[in-house]
Specification:
It is built from twelve helices and 19 strands. With 388 residues, the protein is of the alpha/beta class. The protein folds into two domains: 209 residues, Alanine racemase (TIM Barrel); 126 residues, Lyase, Ornithine Decarboxylase, Chain A, domain 1. Strands 1, 11, 14, 15, 16, 17, 18 and 19 form an eight-stranded mixed beta sheet that branches. The chain has a seven-stranded parallel beta sheet with strand order 3-4-5-6-7-8-9. The protein has a two-stranded parallel sheet with strand order 2-10. It is elongated, with a radius of gyration of 24 Å. The protein starts with a helix and ends in a 21-residue tail after the last strand. The chain binds pyridoxal-5'-phosphate. Pyridoxal-5'-phosphate binds next to helix 10.
């Protein structure tokens, strides 16, 4: 994203690539001897896989996971040749040859995906690498117990394939006391006996914090790399990565009893200063945040009043002294004082959804943790004190 985009955009997301790398190192050391991959699906959870991937590769990460083939095709040319990109959904019927053409590794989730991959290997007369996923208690993707037992009795099913990883995914890892965690671990250990011998991977971000039994050979964090709290209810051990700012377009002073916004959902209880800022639900600032969340002008919390519109929010800026906030100034929506997990909870969702909903109009700006230049220009609303 160019500087001009950041200067003219209504909202700017600043992504600290240095913090993402620091989080990857922290998770890798937390996983003991296991290797640490990076999950970059959905454009690295909305942050920009084209920038996050190379930053992690430069730090030594060599295993990357995305959901779709197209995500992998876009990522491969940006990574070192010895990096591996795996596609969690595996090949849709008929797309197998494209995986080979782009050097992308499929995660085989079903007997039919295994059969199609083996058929292509035979046709090409060469061994093809793959990951195999088993379902150990989520009923979403992967071979079920019956399928993997059947495969144990049919070694020909793997002819021409090189299984480089056996993986499964945890349904309840963010609740450490949930009995499903131990049950899935047990099923995973059992399932590996029916499958080709290969390194194993079970843990997502939260799974890394369930203990060394869950680490196996490779861990697959996404959310925690991007600063989301891996475990609910305990202090977040990850470094913050994001700052989301929106610019103020207009301010007005309104008398008491002035209805504000669609549906007149809020009415000023006293003389108030209303600031309208350039971010709305089309930018991923969810409509459910109206009347619930705040923005910050530096250290001053300003409530969002009335409904969130498609392109704007209205903010009660009455706590600031006159002239402290002007058109063109930026306010913080996500940042050190406004944690994305908390805001997501206010909207009735999770940080994952907040991040992946951030819209295309939001300019992405990248820093490497070294400098602290404000992305939204020189004059930050936060540099003014609150009214006494
Ligand atoms: C999304 C995903 C991950 C990463 O999960 P986080 O909770 O974001 O760490 C890992 N493995 C699979 C199979 C996934 O779908």
């Amino acid at each position: 994203m160019s500087g001009r985009d950041a200067q003219t955009a209504g909202a700017v997301l600043t992504v600290d690539l240095g913090a993402i790398v620091a989080n990857w190192r922290r998770l890798k050391s937390r996983a003991g001897g296991a290797d640490c991959a990076a999950v970059l699906k959905a454009d690295a959870y909305g942050l920009g896989a084209a920038r996050v991937g190379p930053a992690l590769a430069a730090a030594g990460c060599r295993q990357f996971f995305v959901a779709h083939l197209d995500e992998a095709i876009a990522l491969v040319p940006r990574l070192p040749r010895d990096a591996t990109v795996s596609v969690l959904h595996g090949p849709l019927p008929g797309s197998e040859a494209e995986f080979v053409a782009h050097g992308v590794r499929p995660v085989l989730n079903s007997r039919s995906q295994i059969d199609a991959w083996r058929a292509l290997a035979r046709r090409l007369g060469r061994r093809l690498a793959a990951v195999v996923q088993v379902d150990t208690g989520m009923a979403r993707l992967g071979l079920d117990a019956r399928e993997s037992d059947a495969l144990a009795d049919d070694p020909g099913a793997w002819a021409g394939l090189r299984i480089e990883l056996v993986m499964s995914h945890l349904a309840c890892a963010d609740e450490p006391a949930h009995p499903a965690n131990a049950a899935q671990l047990e099923r995973f250990v059992a399932a590996r006996r029916s499958l080709p011998q290969a390194p194993a991977s079970l843990a997502n971000s939260a799974g890394i914090f369930l203990g060394s039994d869950f680490h196996f050979d490779l861990v697959r964090p996404g959310a925690a790399l991007y600063g989301l709290a891996p475990v609910a209810g305990v202090p977040n051990p990850m470094r913050p990565v994001l700052r989301l700012q929106a610019r103020v377009i207009q301010l007005r002073d309104v008398p008491p009893d002035t209805p504000v916004g669609y549906g007149h959902a809020w009415t000023s209880p006293r003389p108030s200063r209303i600031a309208t800022a350039s971010v709305g639900y089309a930018d991923g600032w969810l409509r459910g945040l109206g009347g619930r969340a705040s923005v910050w002008a530096g250290a001053v919390e300003l409530p969002i009043v009335g409904r969130v519109s498609m392109d704007t929010v209205t903010i009660d800026a009455s706590r600031l002294p006159p002239g402290a906030l002007r058109a063109g100034d930026a306010v913080d929506l996500i940042g050190p004082r406004c944690d994305v997990d908390r805001i997501a909870a206010q909207a009735g969702t999770i940080g994952y959804e907040m991040l992946t909903r951030l819209g295309r109009r939001v300019a992405r700006v990248y820093r490497d943790g070294a400098d602290d230049e404000p992305a939204c220009g020189d004059r930050m609303a936060g540099e003014v004190p609150a009214a006494a």
